[in-house]
Amino acid sequence: MHYSEKINCLAGFIKKSAHTLALTGAGISTESGIPDFRSPGTGLWTKFDPIKVATVSALKRDPAAFYEINLDRWTRYTGVEPNAAHYALARLESEGLLQGVITQNIDGLHRKAGSKQLWEVHGHLRTCHCMGCKESYPLDFLVNQFNDGTNPPRCKRCGGVLRLDVVLFEDPLGEDFTGAVYAMNKCRLLIVVGSSLQVYPVASLPERARQLVIINKEPTPWDDRADLVINDMAGSVLTDVLAALEKL
Ligand code: NAD
Predict the structure, then answer these.
(1) In whole angstroms, what is the distance from residue 238 CA to residue 186 CA?
(2) Whole domain around residue 108: which residue ranges?
(3) Among the atoms of ligand 1, which is closest to the Cα of residue 202?
């Protein structure tokens, strides 16, 4: 199938589907300037092993080193703007053509773009909490301490070490993942955007989709089971799909 046929096909799927969800990964944010994990050459895997540095055991073993390695990378995400792909999904939702977005990203760009029904299954960068007494704080409370030389940042109530509300390797998934699994029960069409579908358990969600479309630059392990695969840039694909929907 040629590119334009694929775009028309996806627009047709969306138009006919009674319940459509998007599942997004780091690839949807690369056009905003945030590197993903696994893109050849530019992915973070090429620089370090995220499984070694972003784990619960690394945080507990040496929280100061954990923040030295990770905090700058994460806080840089907060100044980034959404791109055409994030805006296209928000627009599909506002037009009643998409019922929600399940995202693995912690960058907050779907929310910034206007998506309302959102499951942030790997957490977010808005808040942090104390590992001792569980008191919650805005992220700035942690970042300001780090920038003023207090590392690891600590709880003002009990002095415990603070941690971000992102899901680290070795963490269990939280209530957003439970919500996403529940939402998948109603889903007729799942559109995966910018994910290598290699991080479990999120990568098992396509199993529950009755119809599956994958928009990803590179092949994924799910391609054989997908109804449509578009190996192209998320921003242009979703912009073209919006234009095709207008003509239907
Ligand atoms: P991944 O890096 O494993 O895969 C990203 C996929 O996106 C790759 O297969 C790549 O080919 C594709 N891609 C890159 N740019 C694209 C584009 N413009 N259009 C279409 N496809 C594109 O990412 P993952 O599957 O999300 O898993 C990595 C884990 O790390 C996830 O938990 C993820 O959320 C997290 N992570 C998040 C961020 C973020 O919040 N922005 C950044 C890096 C990693």
Answers:
(1) 23
(2) 1-34+82-122+173-248
(3) 32
Quick count: other Cβ atoms within 10 Å of Cβ 52? Answer: 11
Give alpha helix (H) positions in 54-205.
56-61, 63-76, 84-94, 109-113, 139-147, 175-186
- Are 7 and 241 in contact by the 8 Å Cβ rule? The answer is yes
Verify cis geometry, omega within 30 degrees of 0, for the bond prior to 153.
no
Interval 29-70: pLDDT, tens: 999 999 888 777 766 666 667 667 789 999 999 999 999 989
- In DSSP terms, 22 is beta-bridged to 101, 191
Residues taking part in catalysis = 122
CATH code assigned at 48? 3.30.1600.10
| CATH number of the domain to which 184 belongs | 3.40.50.1220
Going by alpha carbons, the residue nearest to atom 28 of ligand 1 is 37
Backbone angles phi, psi at 235, to 5 degrees: -60, -50
Spacing, Cα 196 to ligand 1 middle (Å): 7
Q: What is the pTM of this model?
A: 0.95
Tokens 């599942």 belong to 23
Ligand 1 centroid–CA 133 distance in Å is: 33
Helix H or strand E encompassing 15: helix 3-16
Phi then psi for 161, rounded to 5 degrees? -75, 140
Please list, in sequence order, all residues whose beta carbon lies within 8 angstroms of the beta carbon of residue 29, skipping any fewer than 6 positions away: 36, 80, 83, 86, 105, 107, 109, 194
Ligand 1: atom nearest CA of 167 is 32
**pLDDT tens, position by position, 168-181:** 989 999 999 999 99
